[in-house]
User: Fold these one by one.
Assistant:
Number 1:
Amino acid sequence: MNVIKYRHVMVLASLAMVLSACSTMPSVTKIQKLPDTADAPYDNILVIALLASYTSRKGLERQVVSQLAERGTKSVASTSMMKTTTPMTKENYLAMIDEIGADAVLISRLVDLQTGVAIQDASPEATYNIRPTYYFNVWDVNLTEYIEPPFVGIEGTYVLATQVYSVSIRDAVWAIESTADFEQDISVPRPYLVYLDEATSIVHHLSRDGVIAK
């Protein structure tokens, strides 16, 4: 005879926060090649992400700045020079350029986004604790099931346009569009991997095309 005790333990929804968005590496299309007349390579860049959410802007800008630093190029994220309530105006960005003495400005903006949303069931996990009793061939079996609640998943495709403007020429000298598919738990406010993949791709092409020092 087996005595089985079931205990169902619901895992808090906050555990879903450990999930990060997963994305494919962006596919890049060249929009504007660096002309011979450009004063590149640039070594002091103001990085601007024109996205609706301050958190998203900050996430992407920080990753681009980090990737540029690894290649020895100085850059500053615009969100590091403003508050969440600071307007994204031309005047404010021009003031930042003057303050840091930037020789170029990198601007990324979302130009297309196609998404779909669906409720997804999480996979349950279980642990067993089996103990003998005082009776012959009788065991006390405790089964603990860890069941995560269903979560809302979002998937889709985005297109991000990135341009580099020369401060001295006062015009765009280089531009790309990157397209990527992504999936994430909608409860995750900061899709870290999306920002990382995008920044890695942008900086790779900046270096390859001679916009920054290799």
Number 2:
Amino acid sequence: MLLPTTLTAVLVLVVFIVLIVALRKISEVLRSIGGTPVSYLAKLRLGLRAIEAETAHLAPQATKLNQGLAEVAAGLGAVDAHLVGTIAAAQRQGG
């Protein structure tokens, strides 16, 4: 009975040691990705902020563009209706 208990305790200890080693390696990798000001995550964040600053003026312009395109769409609808009427009149005259 003593041998299985001792083996179980040793195996549990080995599992905890492996777990600690694995967590430390994971922590090192995560620290290299985002734990320092020169890490990849910090560089990515800096780049994204620069993109955000450079494209901040696009949102108001896109709203204006959408309004203009809506007006163009309404005008094209009127042109389409006029052309349908013209085609119908031409068919009546020719038919």
